[in-house]
Prior knowledge:
Blueprint: H1 5-11, E1 16-19, E2 31-34, E3 38-42, E4 55-59, E5 65-67, E6 73-83, E7 86-92, H2 94-97, E8 101-102, E9 115-124, E10 128-130, E11 135-143
Antiparallel strand pairs: 1-6, 2-11, 3-4, 5-10, 6-9, 7-11, 8-9
Amino acid sequence: MILSGLTIKKYIGREIIIDPFDESRLNPNSYNLSLHNELLIYTHDSLDMKQDNPTQKILIPPEGFILQPGKLYLGRTHEYTRTKNFIPMLEGRSSIGRLGICIHVTAGFGDVGFAGYWTLELFCVQPVRIYAGVQIAQIYYHTISEPYELYTNGKYQNNQDIQASMLYKEF
């Protein structure tokens, strides 16, 4: 079952942490998260799953930054989130999708117990200017049946910044 906005609000500060939290961003069954002011891009055209692929950091200036089609940009949410007892899920906002921006390739699913910033896998279908601070994604929460184990450690747990793929650690 998906939590309602009122239920999300009820659990804020306890089983659901969103920091900073702004009640005006609460929706009927989700909460809007915003884009941080940094992006990462891979510096090689060809990526290797077995390698730690090099990246370059880009700051989004006040006048915005134009995303280009055919390029993957890694961003992150401005908000830190943590959950206990719920599964966090992330999707793009419909207004963002209607501009042809996708906020994740496949990684919209979080584990129960996830703590950190959400890395966004941004790509677009045509050039589009983005801005830091824009409400770009919505987080929503599913209940989980018991028993379960909390996600407490992993490659992306307790992150503090944008994270490029760490798949190479599995080889």
